[in-house]
């Protein structure tokens, strides 16, 4: 837990109008809301909770649609991603720990989008048009989307979303035995999702496979590469996602420490150096907070 790093990075992002006062992007905003609620829990400062509510209001204003949320504010971020929406629902469930009305908001939106994205017995559509009328051209089923929905729905309300959770679980049981994730961020996010239900067979199986895959992705310079065999291709935000996953399952602490040391000062020389996703995920990695299932509102710092 590195609160000075996080507060310094948040101050810098705000000064540079990167986040939360930059362009809206649903994935980054979701992780940012979880971060702000976590900081409220850690510090007791109400300004973090107020800012989390402000982000939610801005996301609804800019990205909100009659059903769901647009991917991002930029012109090329049209359509809707299910896994982004699932992460946003997780953020609403996190905020609902302190402001309960957000739980019902998340439940109602889950009901509203589920049937558009989910085709029972087949899969979850990865990306849809903005009105949820059809699958986005060229896009099919997502490999991790059923897991995303399963985790977020259960975080919101297992009773009110029982049917939707059951459909996601059926898809998981259907696809998981043959699922091998090879891309860095996917591995990190699967590790993270697996830690919420560690006694379930899919979680145990995927956790074991992901940890083996990370051995293939590790580069001794201090980072995980994008895919096996692509040793020189690395991204800060995806490595921070792996850090979150590893912290969630309590594995490879020395590699977590080394990748933080590597990427906390790393500059790629491209647009990612100023992308909000890079820096918000850096903050999440240093302060995972409510991304961790066993996080207490009053932990020892």
UniProtKB/TrEMBL annotation:
Protein name: Linalool dehydratase/isomerase domain-containing protein
Lineage: Bacteria, Pseudomonadati, Pseudomonadota, Gammaproteobacteria, Chromatiales
GO BP annotations listed: carbohydrate metabolic process
InterPro entries, sorted: 6-hairpin_glycosidase_sf (IPR008928)
Organism from which the protein derives: Halothiobacillus diazotrophicus
